[in-house]
Please model this.
Amino acid sequence: MKKPSTETSTSELRGEYEGAADDYTVGQDWQAYTPEMHARWRRLHARQSALVETHACAAFREGLARLDCADGIPRFEDANAILEPATGWRLVGVPGFIPDAVFFDHLAHRRFPVTRWLREEHELDYLVEPDIFHDFFGHVPMLLDPTIADFLELYGKAGARAMAMDALDMLARIYWYTIEFGLVRESADGLGRLKVFGAGIISSSGETRFSLEDPKVLRLPFDAVRVMRTGYMIDAFQKTYFVLESLPQLIEDLVGLDFGPVYETWRQAPPIPAGDLLPGETPFGELTP
Ligand SMILES: [Fe+2]
Model:
């Protein structure tokens, strides 16, 4: 995962950055995981897998099953043997948060940075910085989906222009409200139920339930410009979620959008506060998974 916005010195971060390569990659050092860490992974995996069955979209459920990672902390090389032939993506180990430009460059080349350390026992429910459970369990299943695979490469390629136009916050909100906190309408069952596909939701048992079941939280149809204008919550459940009609909508809407004029129009404007409804907007009603 990538942190949402402002730069942070690596000395304030929790990972071991010493010895990382210029592109911030590190070896996974899988042998260093202890039996307790593998047991913790199994508990996290079991708890979230149960929720995934009812709350996650089909692409996530299928991706997670293909990764077959319930028995312990997975090896990146094993995942790469599944990912590379499927969508051309490859996992690279990182110590934790990495600078924006480095993150974009990895994505543009279909390399997904995965933090190598696992949360501690007292952090099972919540931690601020992403760990291997968030990065792997939350993100990697969706790398097996062709639409998300293509979108993430395009997102990486869009990073340089956003930075040059001083509009990184706007672009980052697209990532935040889709890859991290996105909902999608599941049409395969004919019922059009909303499901989760964002990793920030799916790696949190509390927010997985909250995002779909809370009767009051705002769920709005995905609109790229609205998303880029909307602020978000960093250390609490989101107050607004955006819903794709299907995963391919993500590519269809963004490929046809000229980001330059959108950045110029809105980059100086204060963001719409999370949870605010604008005149004329119609949120989704109360939902059950
Ligand atoms: Fe993430």
In short: Residues 1, 130, 134, 138-139, 180, 199-200 surround fe (ii) ion (CB under 6 Å). Residues 1-7 have pLDDT under 50 and may be disordered.
